[in-house]
Amino acid sequence: MLTIAIDFDDTFSADPDLWREFVGVATGRRYGHKCILVTNRPEAMGNDVRAEVGDLMPIVFAGRLSKKEAAARAGYSVDIWIDDNPEYVDVQGIRYVGNDRPDEPGVDT
User: Fold this and answer.
1) Which of 61, 81, 100, 108 could anchor a disulfide with 43, C-beta 3.0 to 4.6 Å?
2) Total Cβ atoms within 10 A of residue 100
3) Nearest to 35 by CA among 26, 44, 43
4) Does pTM surpass 0.90?
5) Measured between alpha carbons, how far is residue 2 from residues 6, 10, 36 in Å?
């Protein structure tokens, strides 16, 4: 079984119906994989994420942690990352500013 992490902004949100179908197939009896959603957003900025994803898969809000560390702290060892900005998976200190794109690491505006 694989654990597959899917980003929200500009990945899941780019085509929610596609990703819902993907998660359904990936987690179904035939394949039995685990899908999680991992976003750089802090939990306080996640109402629309929760509304869009619902109970389709667990959601991990990384906040200022790297996505990789946040997933690990939540108990997930991710095998495959699906992200429009894969360079952010292992970067700490990204500040989500609400415009669907995080700031560069370490920048507070």
Assistant:
1) 61
2) 13
3) 26
4) no
5) 13, 23, 11
Within a 10 A sphere around the Cβ of 77, how many other Cβ atoms? 9
Report pLDDT for 18: 98
The CA-atom distances, in angstroms, between 90 and each of 32, 38, 66 are 26, 12, 5
Structure tokens, 78: 């991710």
Average the pLDDT over 35-47 and give the result.
94
- How far apart, in whole angstroms, are the C-alpha atoms of residue 39 and residue 95? 11
Residues 6 or more apart in contact with residue 76 via CB below 8 angstroms: 3, 5, 34, 36, 60
Is 84 in contact with 91 (CB distance < 8 Å)?
no
Q: Which of 65, 64, 87 is nearest to 76 (CA)?
A: 65
pLDDT at 96: 61
For residue 51, which amino acid is it?
A
Cα–Cα distance, 94 to 75 (Å, whole number):
21
